[in-house]
Design brief:
Layout lengths: L1 H11 L9 H13 L3 E4 L5 E5 L4 E6 L12 E5 L2 E5 L5 H16 L3 E6 L7 H4 L9 E4 L8 E5 L1 E10 L2 E3 L5 E7 L5 E2 L11 H10 L3 E8 L5 E2 L3 E7 L10 E6 L6 E3 L2 H10 L3 E6 L4 E14 L2 E10 L2 H17 L3 E8 L8 H10 L8 E4 L5 H6 L6 E4 L4 E2 L7 E3 H17 L3
Parallel strand pairs: 3-6, 3-7, 7-23, 8-22
Antiparallel strand pairs: 1-2, 2-6, 4-5, 5-25, 9-20, 9-21, 10-17, 11-15, 11-16, 12-14, 13-15, 18-19, 19-20, 24-25
Helix pairs in contact: 1-3, 5-6, 8-10
Protein name: Cytosol nonspecific dipeptidase
Keywords: Hydrolase
GO biological process, one term: proteolysis
Length: 429
């Protein structure tokens, strides 16, 4: 089992930020060919590896959310927990990949699918067209050991943009930088109900309650991550006093600034009034039913852009949430588009799910069926196959993904790998 950690170390040493995965793709192909797998690649960059007569296809995505120093990830293992120094760890979904590499070394009849750019809208899964040999898909992207996921949220990105016009900064005597910093961050799906504060919302609420105008504004790291930091440069007619201890205020030289954003009031209203977080709770599944995250504020070529990630456990509510968000921003003068729609994966207990549960119960007595308020690729992948495919998602315990606090429980990795092998053995002739 220690081989899995070594595989993870090797994976971690290769850059694989979303949209920048070429080196990782080539490494996967080389590894598969070394172990006598037939390797297929489609136009978008998904990699399908086949050997013998497989009945189970293992699946993981090979990109990661990059926050911090991900060019030189330093792994730390302490008391059975693996972390990274000053960066996201990439256990999502690198640990699933490591388990797949381990399984490829030990099985003669196996299919493995590595999908690309999952973290930026399930891009690989949504364009996957290669036919699978297997009738069962085992996704390794879940993040709670001992649980079996048979459904997930759908998602869509709502993008609000505003062309910026500027006015002379004549009557304002003071200029300040307000910096929301050192917030915890987290995954905008699985962590959205954990009361993790958003740096953008903290800054936005403060701006809404100050008599200021905006000179510049930026914040967040990824649209599917709860923002860790945000910064505004503002001008005021009187000295600025901020009561929120999470915000750092620094006076700036007034003579360095000549103009402010004409639509400052509308922008501050948008940030202050945006309803971040859980919008509705599913009492049956005991998870959020609808949620939204304002993940990134950016300014490029004179256009301010707000990137929001909306999620819902059914397509009807996803459309409603996206429509309400679009109407909210339009009412404040923004242009709005939607992109990256992927439908929800409706929960279903299939014969394959029951077999997975039987294998899981050899280690975890309860092994409940669950759904997750995040995007899993299963629904998109099976919808694009000509034959009926049954899908299930399992995985080791990963805490705080998409943040600098990301960590993975190694015992759960070894247990999950053992269960994966039991499932493969179940389907041997």
């Amino acid at each position: 089992m220690e081989q899995i950690v070594e595989h993870f170390r090797a994976i971690t040493a290769i850059p694989r930020c979303s949209y920048h995965t070429t080196q990782m793709k080539e490494a996967i192909k080389a590894f598969a060919q070394t172990h006598d797998f037939v390797v297929l690649e489609d136009a978008i960059g998904n990699i399908l590896c086949q050997k013998g007569s497989p009945q189970v296809c293992l699946q993981a995505h090979y990109d990661m959310v990059c926050i911090g120093d991900t060019q030189n990830i330093e792994i730390v293992i302490e008391k059975g927990i693996i972390r990274a120094k000053n960066s996201t760890l990439g256990a999502d979904n690198g640990m699933g990949m490591a388990m797949m590499f381990w399984a490829m070394e030990h099985n003669e009849n196996l299919e493995c699918l590595f999908t690309v750019d999952e973290e930026v809208g399930l891009i690989g899964a949504m364009q996957f067209t290669m036919p699978l040999k297997s009738a069962c898909l085992l996704n390794l992207d879940a993040e709670e050991e001992g649980e079996i996921y048979i459904g997930c949220a759908g998602g869509v990105d709502v993008i609000a943009s505003l062309s910026l016009q500027y006015e002379p900064l004549e009557d304002f005597a003071y200029v300040y930088e307000i910096h929301a910093f050192d917030f915890l961050g987290g995954h905008s799906g699985v962590d959205i109900d954990k009361k993790i504060p958003s740096a953008i919302k903290a800054l936005g609420y403060e701006l809404l309650n100050q008599d200021v105008v905006l000179i510049a504004l930026e914040g967040g790291e990824r649209r599917n991550a709860i923002p860790k930091s945000a910064t505004a440069i503002v001008a005021s007619k009187t000295p600025l006093h901020v009561n929120d201890s999470r915000l750092h205020v620094k006076p700036l030289e007034r003579s360095n600034y000549t103009h402010f954003i004409a639509a400052s009031n509308a922008i501050m209203k948008a940030l202050g009034a945006f309803a971040q977080g859980v919008r509705e709770w599913d009492r049956v599944l005991d998870i959020p039913s609808m949620s939204i995250n304002l993940g990134v504020i950016s300014n490029s070529n004179g256009v301010l852009r707000l990137d929001c990630a909306a999620r819902a456990m059914d397509d009807e509510n996803l459309a409603i949430l996206a429509g309400e968000t679009e109407a909210f921003f339009k009412a404040l003068g923004f242009d709005v588009t939607q992109e990256g729609w992927h439908g929800a994966w409706k929960p279903e207990v299939t014969p394959f799910a029951l077999r997975v549960q039987e294998a899981m119960q050899s280690i975890y007595a309860h092994a409940p069926f669950k759904a997750i308020h995040a995007g899993l690729e299963c629904g998109e992948l099976i919808a694009r196959q000509p034959q009926k495919i049954e899908a299930v998602s399992i995985g080791p315990t990963i805490r705080y993904p998409h943040s600098l606090r990301e960590e993975c429980d190694l015992v759960s990795v070894y247990n999950t790998a053992s269960i994966v092998q039991k499932i493969i053995n179940t389907y041997k002739d």
